[in-house]
Amino acid sequence: MDRKSFIRKTSVGILIGIPAVSLIGCSGSDDGGGSNGPNPNPNPTPSGNCLENGTNASISSNHGHTLTVSKEDVDAAVEKTYDLSEASTDQHIHQVTISAAQFNTLKSNNQITVTSTSQAQHNHNVIVSCA
Q1: Helices (H), the chain
Q2: Rg of the chain over CA atoms, in angstroms?
Q3: How many secondary structure helices (H) and strands (E) does the chain include?
């Protein structure tokens, strides 16, 4: 094989090989599987400590709402309805209700998801996690 053929074949091999290796490397599942199967805990790494620090809230399609759930409310674990703060755009308020069972989930330092009431023709999904 002459030098020109060697370079051409090597270049073609590299151009085909690198994408193939990348595709093979990305085709695996990231479900925590393996010999033990998937991890049944939906939040295997606690995000914080609700009983010490209270919570954080992530609000979908947010346009100025906030939610604060205190550590005292988490500790009491009694169903409670909260107002999301007024939106910055058109001054409306949504509400979310956190059940006693959901408070117990927060006590275990796992996050919960609640859906707000509908106002101004929309609602929000709210993820409450430990601070």
Answers
A1: 3-26, 50-53, 71-76, 100-107
A2: 25
A3: 4, 5
Q: Who contacts 30 (Cβ-Cβ below 8 Å, separation ≥6)?
A: none
Is the predicted pLDDT of residue 79 greater than 60, yes or no? yes
Mean pLDDT for the stretch of residues 2-15: 67
Eight-state DSSP code of residue 116: P
Going from the C-alpha of 45 to that of each of 78, 89, 110, the distances in angstroms are 25, 35, 9
By the 8 A CB rule, do 67 and 124 touch?
A: no
Q: From CA 58, how far away is CA 65, in angstroms rounded?
A: 10
How many Å apart are CA 56 and CA 51, to the nearest integer? 12
Full-model pTM: 0.64
115, 97 Cβ separation under 8 angstroms: no
pLDDT in tens, 86-131: 877 778 899 999 999 999 999 999 999 999 999 989 999 999 999 9
